[in-house]
Amino acid sequence: MYNPSNKGNAYTNCANLIITKELKLKIVKRSLKNQKGQGVMEYIILTGLIGIICLGAVKKFGKSLDTRLNQIDRKIKNELVIK
Length: 83
Fold this sequence. Notes:
By secondary structure, the chain is mostly helical. The chain has one helix at about 10-80.
């Protein structure tokens, strides 16, 4: 790492600056990879919650919806009696 109190030659100081920049670049790349992983996790959590909500809605309204569709089915069959 760069140390201004280091009394080394200019080449050593320059090499230390290059290493520091390379380390910073690696840190930035790692943080970008972490953000991509975070976005995927958010997507997974969101789709999971949507799925749970859909299952709850089907469970709550499924029975009444089934009853209503059966009533409609019976009325249609009664109206379309083939003679």
